[in-house]
């Protein structure tokens, strides 16, 4: 895919891992203009139906997205002193859990303890 802007072209890969490409382009008068290009990723890359959960002192566990969200809510409720500052800006535990679910893959439970979750695709 190519994006052509004023006699210059910016080549974009067929499948980019990021959701946007940022940069700048020099205009015809010598001015530099910032550009940001939003990409439409292949939707199958973001199908997250199941998660593998790794927790200290427990065997790995496979959960649905809804069960993973419920687990995060329970962990946040049980560990209010461990909630990171960027997560605390959300007023409810449900909103905090949703934010963590969407933006992170690990929650620090203290020294030597952890909770990690990763999206997986299970073969049928």
Topology, element by element:
Layout lengths: L1 E4 L2 E4 L8 E7 L5 E7 L11 E6 L5 E4 H14 L6 H4 L4 H11 L2 E3 L5 E7 L4
Antiparallel strand pairs: 1-2, 3-4, 5-6, 5-8, 7-8
Helix pairs in contact: 1-3
Brief synopsis:
The chain has helices spanning 65-78, 85-88, 93-103; strands at 2-5, 8-11, 20-26, 32-38, 50-55, 61-64, 106-108, 114-120.
What would you say this structure looks like, in words?
This protein is α+β, with helices and mostly antiparallel strands and 124 residues long. The longest helix has 14 residues, at 65-78. The protein starts with a strand and ends with a strand. It is globular, with a radius of gyration of 20 Å. It has helices at residues 65-78, 85-88, 93-103, and strands spanning 2-5, 8-11, 20-26, 32-38, 50-55, 61-64, 106-108, 114-120. It has a 4-stranded antiparallel β-sheet with strand order 6-5-8-7. The chain has 2 domains: 2-42, no CATH class; 47-120, Alpha-Beta Complex (Eukaryotic RPB6 RNA polymerase subunit), CATH 3.90.940.40.
Return the string of H and E elements: EEEEEEHHHEE
Low-confidence stretches: 1-27, 35-39
DSSP helical segment count: 3
CATH architecture of the largest domain: Alpha-Beta Complex
Identify the overall geometry.
globular
Q: Output the strand order for the largest sheet.
A: 6-5-8-7
Report the CATH topology name of the largest domain.
Answer: Eukaryotic RPB6 RNA polymerase subunit
The average pLDDT value, as a whole number, equals 74
Q: What about the largest sheet? A: 4 strands, antiparallel
- The CATH homologous superfamily of the largest domain corresponds to Protein CHLORORESPIRATORY REDUCTION 7
How far apart, in Å, are the first and last alpha carbons? 34 Å
CATH class of the largest domain: Alpha Beta
């Amino acid at each position: 895919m190519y994006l052509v802007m004023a006699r210059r072209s910016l080549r974009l890969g067929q499948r980019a891992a990021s959701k946007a490409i940022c940069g700048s382009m020099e205009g015809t008068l010598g001015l530099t203009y910032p550009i940001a290009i939003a990409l439409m990723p292949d939707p199958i890359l973001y199908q997250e139906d199941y998660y593998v959960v790794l927790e200290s002192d427990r065997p790995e566990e496979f959960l649905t997205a809804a069960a993973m969200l419920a687990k995060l809510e329970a962990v946040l409720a049980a560990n209010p002193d461990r909630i990171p500052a960027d997560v605390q800006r959300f007023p409810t535990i449900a909103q905090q859990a949703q934010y963590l679910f969407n933006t992170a893959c690990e929650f620090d439970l203290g020294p030597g303890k952890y909770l990690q979750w990763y999206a997986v695709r299970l073969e049928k």
